[in-house]
Specification:
Elements lengths: L3 E8 L3 E2 L9 H16 L8 E5 L11 H8 L8 E4 L5 H14 L5 E9 L16 H4 L7 H12 L3 H20 L10 E4 L5 E4 L11 H5 L20 E11 H6 L6 E10 L8 H13 L8 E4 L5 H10 L12 H4 L6 H16 L3 E8 L3 E9 L1
Parallel strand pairs: 3-4, 3-5, 10-11
Antiparallel strand pairs: 1-8, 1-9, 2-8, 5-8, 6-7, 9-12, 11-12
């Protein structure tokens, strides 16, 4: 039976919106990551059989199939194809699943899966051009924004403002500790770009974590979506710019090329969930992927559950019975940012390196997605 392995994984630093990557085109940012990925793996670009990238706002510089244009910019031969997909916040995680499925089917042996998003240069929802949901959809479902969904999750699970802010403070503290200890250095590709005053700069670290983030500071922020609610800019993910990618292979091809894979993909799942609550899908996706793998949550050494809003991982912890000390141990999107299309493989790359750092065996990744969906993936370190 064919087996899918991860040979290498890298990511850019995550830039704050209008931060270090404000003058960096997303196709060029993705190209820098693709170029570094194959260099680190020691693989010929011409041997890659497909480049699958997630991107949510496919408009402007992110339109026109950015996977293809980024690969060409990165110097891949013109016969290497590329395709761009949108499964909302889990887009690049879905790219991994599609790439793995192509390898398992025997159609391909070497695939790059990743994602990119510049929320500075291509603002969220710009691809919608002001379009409203179909009445045939709204007649069936209450369609609300994700912030209101997060408010409803907090209310349903009984999370207080203090709990959400405490989780967010912890995310910042963990992220700052990880950066200080150099935990992210090996996975990050330094990006040379143009600074905001025209000078050449090199972005080497994630820009999101804010020193001095305390419960008191977060408690002073106004709520964003409901004046009587609990969700603020301080306990929600940050808008960000970034790119990330992993190199997938069949185990046989990796062996043939004399490469030492970092991990194998054990199981994958994708689910639909309530499109109104929208962000609860990781719970069902986790249960499904654990059942597919024949494993239990206690078998996982680390898990990454995207911090789209603080209530999301907290609800996941409550229902799955996970260990808070294994969840997002180096910070999450509240502190580090959430470059939509890039987040899936960004978190996968970080999970991979964290398992290597701690000599863990199993890691789980789950991400909630717009309109009510979620992906989950289990990897095993080799």
């Amino acid at each position: 039976m064919r087996e899918v392995v991860i040979v290498e994984g890298v990511r850019s630093p995550v830039g704050r919106r209008k931060g270090g990557f404000a003058n960096t085109r997303p196709d060029e940012l993705a190209a820098a990551v693709l170029d570094e990925l194959v260099k680190r793996a020691g693989v010929d670009k011409g041997d890659v059989e497909d480049v699958i990238l997630g991107c949510v706002s496919q408009a402007g510089e992110q339109g026109g199939n950015i996977a293809r244009t980024a690969a060409l910019i990165a110097g891949f031969p013109d016969y290497v194809p590329g395709v761009t997909i949108d499964r909302q916040c889990g887009s690049s995680q879905q790219a991994v699943h599609f790439g793995a499925q192509a390898i398992l089917a025997g159609d391909m042996d070497i695939v790059i899966a990743g994602g990119v998003e510049s929320m500075t240069r291509v603002p969220m929802f710009s691809n919608m051009q002001g379009a409203k949901p179909s009445k045939k959809l709204t007649d069936q479902y209450e369609i609300i924004n994700q912030g209101l969904s997060a408010e409803r999750i907090a209310e349903k699970w009984g999370f207080t403002r203090e709990q959400l802010d405490a989780f967010s403070v912890q995310s910042h503290e963990r992220a700052q500790r990880a950066i200080k200890e150099g935990r992210y250095e090996r996975e990050i590709v330094p990006i040379r770009t143009q600074g905001q005053t025209g000078e050449t700069i090199t972005v080497t670290e994630d820009e999101g974590p804010r020193p001095g983030t305390t419960q008191e500071v977060l408690g002073s922020l106004k709520t964003v979506f409901d004046e009587n609610g609990v969700v603020t800019a301080g306990n929600a993910s940050q808008m960000s710019d970034g790119a990330s990618a992993v190199l997938l292979m069949s185990a046989d091809k990796a062996n043939e090329l004399g490469l030492k894979p970092k991990a194998r993909i054990i199981a994958r799942s994708v689910v639909g969930s309530d499109p109104t609550l929208m962000l609860t899908g990781p719970i069902a996706a986790t249960r499904k992927v654990l059942a597919k793998a024949g494993l239990e949550i206690g078998d996982m050494d680390r898990y990454e559950v995207n911090e789209a809003f603080a209530p999301v991982p907290l609800a996941w912890l409550h229902d799955i019975g996970g260990d808070p000390e294994k969840l997002n141990v180096n910070g999450g999107a509240v502190a580090l940012g959430h470059p939509l299309g890039a987040t899936g493989t960004k978190l996968l790359v970080s999970l991979l390196h964290e398992l290597e750092r701690t000599n863990g065996r199993y890691g789980l990744l789950a991400i909630c997605e717009g309109m009510g969906m979620a992906n989950a993936t289990i990897i095993e370190k080799l």
